[in-house]
Amino acid sequence: MVTLIRGIGSRVVYYIDYVGAIGKLFFNSLYWTFVPPLKRERILVQARNIGLESLPIVSLVAFFIGVILALQTAYQMQKLSSEIYIANIVALSIVRELGPVITSLIVAGRCGAAVTAELGTMKVTEQIDALETLATNPVKYLVVPRFLAFTFMLPVLTIYANLIGILGGYLICVYRLGIRSSMYVQLTFDALSIKDLATGLIKTLVFGMIIAMVGCLEGMRTEGGAEGVGKATTLSVVTSFILILAADCVFTAIFYFIFP
Amino acid sequence: MIEIKNIYKNFNSNKVLNGVNLTITKGETKVIIGRSGCGKSVLLKHIMGILRPESGIIKVEGKDIERMPSKELNALRMRMALVFQGGALFDSLTVGENVGFALYEYSKLSHKEIEERVEEALCNVELCGIHKLMPSELSGGMKKRVAIARALCMQPEVILYDEPTTGVDPITAGSINELIRGLHDKFKVTSIVVTHDMKSAYRIADKIAMLYQGKIIAEGTSQEIQETDHPVVYQFINGLAQGPITETII
Ligand SMILES: Nc1ncnc2c1ncn2[C@@H]1O[C@H](COP(=O)(O)OP(=O)(O)OP(=O)(O)O)[C@@H](O)[C@H]1O
Ligand SMILES: [Mg+2]
């Protein structure tokens, strides 16, 4: 019993600690973002990496999601003979929920992990210490470009994923289920409002920050050689996933209850 | 120039530094010797302000580096350089970008001037013309020398070397010793050199200090150290298996 309580206690302390560390890194990054000079190339290099690494798999997954969603919706809607709602449901589910979340999870697994591995290796080979001895703040040099790149790339990738997902749904509905092409497009546009798009994209800004902060934090506090880097990378992905889904839950509730 | 007063440092329960006192005067070459794992690297990191002691004071030019605002500390770091034991080269940058890192980041020199400075620093460690390679393409000894070049390139007043001659061949080791001596004679660079290599220690040192069980137990000129009657120092410099040092390294 005592050990159980102690176990739970130490977990709680760990999480509070973690939130504190993330918060601190976040404010540090914000602070250093506004301390000149802000080297544009460094951000662009990161943004390009994120884009190049995740574009193929985001395309593939988004397309499949669109197709699956269309088929599953069709299965239900045909029973009610209301196929015209397929376009509506596919578009809304993708733009409001699946596009942002799936893209974030992919980017977390692909690029967030890569960031942790890179910074973790730099930590265990003393490169981060070396930065400090060269009068360079590691947060400014390493974290800020990644922070900005993730925050801005995620909405871009999400818009792209939304388009591909809707395309997937379109192809199924038009070529398999016999819905007229012009009608499907019309229905999709009617279904979507700016608000739907905005709720999706606002979320991704936050998800981007989560991925960058978790990825960098886990990297910067890696300890224990190559093994430590491996552990930190896994931990980074798992933590990002949990935080993204938790944040999504909060957002969805907020949008549902407060801004219906 | 650098005063270290009563530094204590533990990692969890491992007491590494146990009241280190050491003073380095301007322009001197101080060699720190000690067994593997006794905390030499940790001590150097304290001097650069990368690690913070649990208690004790480190003063550089009379100022406590722990109380320094970060701007001032960074300005100080531009005048000091630490050559890491493992090199700690940035593996995403080329050798040239590594060596010129601080100049590219902070100096107002043109790219061409920086490239010249980089080449000069690399030639000083006998690695002319390798600025385009990546650190992963270098051998261990080359990495170490590039790390030294990175330190030289800033033309610092103080250079801390962490085992500059381990892992390089004897001839290169000789030329690194020569280099350290040369910087001392020509530019009055203050050097702190951590090494196990007694031959190079005698060659370059003004003063040798021995770190043992978290304390400086002896300090003196090469001559004095060689003639020591301190049993621990005697055992260490003569590399004897028997003697007062028996505990294995944790
Ligand atoms: N970041 C750290 N976290 C925990 N323990 C550490 C850390 N850095 C060093 N230590 C411990 O401090 C002790 C001294 O390490 P240090 O690297 O200073 O040894 P050293 O004297 O430089 O040895 P060597 O000659 O082999 O380089 C070791 O026992 C090491 O385990
Ligand atoms: Mg060492």
Description of the molecule:
The complex is a heterodimer of chains A (260) and B (250). Chain A has eight helices and no strands. Chain A is an all-alpha fold and 260 residues long. Chain A has one domain (2-258). Chain B is of the alpha/beta class. Chain B has ten helices and ten strands. A six-stranded mixed sheet of chain B has the order 6-7-8-3-9-10, sandwiched between helices. A four-stranded antiparallel sheet of chain B has the order 2-1-4-5, covered by helices on one side. Chain B is globular and about 55 Å long. The two termini of chain B are 33 Å apart. The model of chain B has no long low-confidence stretch (mean pLDDT 87). The interface between A and B is medium-sized, with 15 and 25 residues.
Outline of this structure?
Chain A is mainly alpha-helical and 260 residues long. Chain A is built from 8 helices and no strands. Chain A has one domain.
Shape designation of chain A: elongated
In total, the number of domains of chain A comes to: 1
Bound molecules: adenosine-5'-triphosphate, magnesium ion
Which series of helices and strands of chain A comes N to C?
HHHHHHHH
Work out the oligomeric state of the chains in this entry. Answer: heterodimer
The end-to-end distance of chain A, rounded to whole angstroms, is 46 Å
Rg of chain B, Cα atoms, Å: 18 Å
Estimate percent helicity of chain A.
Answer: over 70%
Rg of chain A, alpha carbons? 21 Å
Number of strands of chain A: 0
Question: Which consecutive residue ranges of chain A, at least 5 long each, have pLDDT under 50?
Answer: none
DSSP summary, beta strand count of chain B: 10
Overall geometry of chain B: globular
Strand content of chain B: 15-25%
Task: Give unreliable regions of chain B as ranges.
Answer: none
Strand ordering within the main sheet of chain B: 6-7-8-3-9-10
Main sheet summary of chain A: none
Distance between the termini of chain B: 33 Å
Proportion of beta-strand residues of chain A: under 5%
Mean pLDDT of chain A: 89
Count every helix of chain B, treating DSSP H or I runs of 4 or more residues as helices. 10
